[in-house]
Write a structure and sequence with these properties.
about 425 residues, mainly alpha
Length: about 425
């Protein structure tokens, strides 16, 4: 692509943005259903904890889509990264089963997090329902990367539309026809949705996969060692990043208004994620369009700034206007009491979508430059910032848990963004002709 315009970037980005948007509205949709079932406070808290554990187990395969986009060029690289993905899927499924061993779960839920008995029981059942989740995520991300590499981003969106339909149908059937605990409704709907999407992604990627398998290797071949060298910093990054959710859950369990905070956090996070997903969707776009010599870094940089500002302004519009009451009480179904806990953290998190877009742009530069290690160290900086902020705000200032968590998320992300400025500039300078 010789001349990259904002229009071309937008056209390439929109299907991926739609994909992430559809995934982002899962959380608010399921939270709204759970909030309308019996014992919403306990069930929202249990669903939030179970989801936090599930995505931590899923962490090693989160970046497979980026790896597939960056590395799969021919028959040899396709087969090797596919085998690598299947091995990771098997490992994380076993880890999920280990978590579900009763003594292990009791240690995590009761001794470590300190969950009330009612929440712990619901969390355990929800985790069993989420057992297929991690492996299905890894499977579909591999094939979605193949599609993005071939420029077929609209097919990624088609698969996600199937997922959303299956998820919503499952949730509504359980809600309307069966007397099932809210946490179980949410977990079952998520598992059905992502499993159906994994099969749909394989189906729509069959043409792209066939073309890739027919492409003869050229130049240096991809090896399992080179895959590991490229991927392990990304996997470690995901593990560190997703460890934040259980870590925050641990602190919220010991914070002022703990049950309210645990109940509200997944609702606030779901709303924030709708706008942060704009940044997550931009990572693969930038990775695919930067060019081998970073020819399009300026155009993509300008697009990223505009996209980030628009996403943050949109979230701020909800947080700082009466739309917040409409969202949390009417749409999400929270009681007036719980909705009051959600407004302050939403306002604090309104800056986060901008930093999410910029972080995706920075990561894409480093991945294109095959220099992934700083991505891991930046995530470590982010996690450390969140941890230290939670200690200071909860144990030091005794702030309400969910508000402290929102401040900690912003502090941590700022640290990650600043940490990546120098390595990104280094990669860009090294790509310039001497």
């Amino acid at each position: 692509m010789k001349h990259l315009t904002s229009k071309k970037i937008f056209i390439f980005w929109v299907p991926l943005a739609a994909t992430w948007f559809m995934m982002a509205i899962e959380g608010p949709f399921l939270a709204a259903i759970i909030a309308r079932l019996p014992d919403p406070k306990y069930n929202l808290a249990a669903f939030g904890v179970a989801f936090a554990v599930a995505i931590l187990v899923e962490a090693p395969v989160i970046m497979i889509m980026s790896a597939s986009t960056a590395l799969v060029e021919d028959r040899d690289s396709f087969r090797k990264l596919r085998n690598y993905t299947y091995l990771l899927n098997a490992v994380i499924t076993v880890v999920m089963l280990v978590v579900l061993v009763p003594p292990v779960f009791d240690f995590i839920a009761r001794s470590t997090i300190g969950l009330p008995a009612e929440v712990a029981t619901l969390t355990y059942g929800a985790l069993w329902l989420l057992l297929p989740w991690p492996g299905a995520i890894g499977y579909r991300r591999f094939f979605q990367g193949i599609l993005i590499r071939r420029g077929l981003t609209r097919f990624v969106a088609y698969g996600t539309a199937v997922r959303l339909t299956a998820m919503a149908t499952t949730a509504l059937i359980l809600f309307l026809e069966f007397e099932v605990a809210g946490a179980y409704v949410g977990a079952a709907a998520l598992s059905v949705g992502v499993s159906v999407e994994a099969l749909a992604s394989r189906w729509v990627a069959r043409g792209a996969a066939r073309e890739t398998l027919e492409t003869e290797p050229k130049g240096e071949r991809l090896t399992y060692t080179s895959i590991t060298q490229f991927y392990y910093p990304l996997a470690l990054t995901s593990i560190l990043a997703l460890a934040v959710h259980p870590m925050v859950t641990f602190f919220l369990g010991r914070a002022p208004y703990s049950v309210e905070s645990l109940a509200v956090l997944p609702v606030v996070n779901s709303l924030s994620f709708i706008f942060r997903s704009m940044g997550l969707s931009f990572q693969e776009v930038s990775l695919a369009l930067l060019g081998r010599k970073f020819e399009h870094v300026k155009e993509l940089g300008r697009f990223a700034i505009g996209l980030g500002l628009a996403a943050s302004l949109a979230l701020g519009l909800i947080g700082f206007t009466p739309l917040s009451g409409l969202w949390f009480e009417t749409v999400s179904g929270l009681s007036h009491e719980l909705a009051a806990f959600a407004i302050a953290p939403t306002r604090i998190l309104s800056v986060l979508p901008f930093f999410a877009v910029m972080l995706s742009f920075q990561r894409s530069i480093l991945m294109q430059g095959r220099f992934t290690r700083p991505i891991t160290t930046a995530t470590a900086v982010e996690v450390a910032g969140i941890l230290l902020s939670l200690i200071a705000l909860i144990h030091g200032l005794h702030l309400i848990g969910v508000t402290a968590a929102a401040i900690a998320f912003v502090v941590g992300r700022l640290g990650a963004n600043f940490h990546l400025i120098r390595p990104c500039l280094g990669v860009l300078r090294s790509a310039q002709p001497h």
